[in-house]
Amino acid sequence: MIPMGYGKSSLGTCFGVFIILGGVWLTTTLVKSGADMADARYIMIGAVLPAFLFIMMDLTNNLKNRNNIEYMHRMLEYPAVKGKIVEIKKYRFHFGVREEITSDQFHYRSYVYRVVASFYDEKNRCEKKVVSEFYARDPRRWILSDRVDIHYSPAGECWIELDEK
Questions:
Q1: 148: closest CA among 124, 131, 134?
Q2: Looking at the DSSP assignment, which residues form a beta bridge with residue 115?
Q3: SS3 58
């Protein structure tokens, strides 16, 4: 599982290519059936504009997430210790605001989740708790056990890597 904002997207580019290919097919069919090329160019313009917008959405999203992705890969290169999931916190996600939910009696449309894990810090000789990034899906459905790998940097930053199915 990859946390929110740490993945690359290619769906918009696929949609864009599909729209352009559909426009080329429709234009070719119309020209072969006797339509004037001047009339068919409007179909191509109509296909290129949404395709361009879909591709630009992908590019801007990938550029926005580039720093997060580089951070994630850098953190995964650091040594890891075994930890245990202590709890999974549930948050309400509404208009970009994340608010922790304490009881399950309320039903919201959008939830995000965070994993709280604990591990024994050999350097300081104490038990530490680490909170993960936000996940769009409930991690309980996608993990094998309550064990996690916690990667830590010399600067004290931590990254939780879940044991996925």
A1: 131
A2: 88
A3: helix
Per-residue pLDDT of the chain (165 residues; tens, 9 = 90+): 888 889 898 999 999 999 999 999 999 998 888 888 887 888 888 999 999 999 999 999 999 999 999 999 999 999 888 999 999 888 877 666 666 666 565 666 678 889 999 998 887 788 989 999 988 888 888 888 888 999 988 888 889 998 776
Phi, psi of 56 (to 5 degrees): -65, -35
Cβ count near 78 (within 10 Å): 15
How far apart (Å, rounded) are the C-alpha atoms in residues 56 and 63? 10
CB 160 within 8 A of CB 78: no
The reported pTM is 0.73
Beta carbons of 66 and 59 less than 8 angstroms apart: no
Contact 143, 115 (CB under 8 A): no
The length of the chain, given as a count of residues:
165
